[in-house]
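Example for tutorial group B:
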């Protein structure tokens, strides 16, 4: 179901966590796969031909531009996915040949289905722990979580687009702990990005669970405390942390 880190960090010396910091994109709406490769896959399904590095650059430029859009803070998940996809595709040479709305809707439907599958687990975790969403987002994470039916599970939401600092900066993790009234001594960070989620959490003395497909190798020297192939397996990993 889950793997302990090679150093045996998930062991009897760990208490059950009081606090969970959860990434959103790639973690709650997918099984450890970030938005870039998922959007790239749907773009390719619609006939897009730009190479991956060019698509990646278009994603980051489009994300920045979309994040500065007027009125973005009120946009829900559907409007966000469609607006971001349009911003990305218009930066690619085959923009006129690929239907951005189809790319966006395929991505949205898949993400919403995964979020719905993960909701019961998230609700159970929220009954046992204080939970904060910590995300590099565009200032409108709360309405997106609300549209997906996830917002009620969180005691705090820290959106980099509102906070002004993005992961892997440790200040955004510290803000999540502060919002939960926690000092981090018994907290976990759960995310799909080794650099943005896992490494900074470990540097801060938090425990960290990496959500990633089983075949993926962790690319950094310091291993996560635990890893799970799907978010639905997180309960088992946390339940193994006993006094």
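The residue assignment follows.
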């Amino acid at each position: 179901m889950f793997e302990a880190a090679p150093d045996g960090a998930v062991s009897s010396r760990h208490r059950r966590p009081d606090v969970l910091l959860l990434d959103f994109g790639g973690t709650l709406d997918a099984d450890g796969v970030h938005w870039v490769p998922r959007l790239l896959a749907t773009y390719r399904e619609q006939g897009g031909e730009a190479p991956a590095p060019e698509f990646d650059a278009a994603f980051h430029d489009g994300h920045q531009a979309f994040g500065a859009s007027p009125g973005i803070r009120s946009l829900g998940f559907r409007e966000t996915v469609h607006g971001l996809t349009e911003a990305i595709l218009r930066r690619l040479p085959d923009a006129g040949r690929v239907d951005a709305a189809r790319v966006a809707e395929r991505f949205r439907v898949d993400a919403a289905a995964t979020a719905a599958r993960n909701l019961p687990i998230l609700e159970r975790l929220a009954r046992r722990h204080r939970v904060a969403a910590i995300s590099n987002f565009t200032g409108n994470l709360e309405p997106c979580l609300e549209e997906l039916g996830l917002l009620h599970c969180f005691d705090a939401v820290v959106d980099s687009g509102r906070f002004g600092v993005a992961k892997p900066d440790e200040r955004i993790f510290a803000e999540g702990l502060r919002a939960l009234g926690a000092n981090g001594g018994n907290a976990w960070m759960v995310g799909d990005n080794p650099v943005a989620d896992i490494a900074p959490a470990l540097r801060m003395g938090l425990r960290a669970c990496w959500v990633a497909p089983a075949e993926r190798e962790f690319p950094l020297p310091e291993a996560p405390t635990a890893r799970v192939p799907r978010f639905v397996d997180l309960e088992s990993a946390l339940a193994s942390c006993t006094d």
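The mean pLDDT is 92. Compare this with the pattern of hydrophobic and polar residues in the output above.
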